[in-house]
User: What shape does this take?
Amino acid sequence: MQNTTPQLKQVRAHALISGRVQGVGYRYATVDTATQLGLTGWVRNLPDGRVEAVFEGSKGVVEQMIRWCYQGPPAAMVKDVLVEYEEPEGLRGFEVKRFE
Assistant: This one.
């Protein structure tokens, strides 16, 4: 199965975004941006005030999305973005999840 070119390799980034990222439309702006970029995954608020997100897609596009996370929507004040790369799960669509 050597027919995939490196650029088309799917990656999964698990991001934890801290700062003023809740109550500023961060999740909905993330959905809009990820959807425009053609990524799949999800985003949710965490009880500790951070936002957690998972992005799946080609490496370059996922990296572009992570760069966006450092900015976020206009009202956000992002302090830090922690990213771990994981095995993609083949997610479909991009949604806001509720913290369980």
In short: The chain has two helices and five strands. Residues 1-7 have pLDDT under 50 and may be disordered.
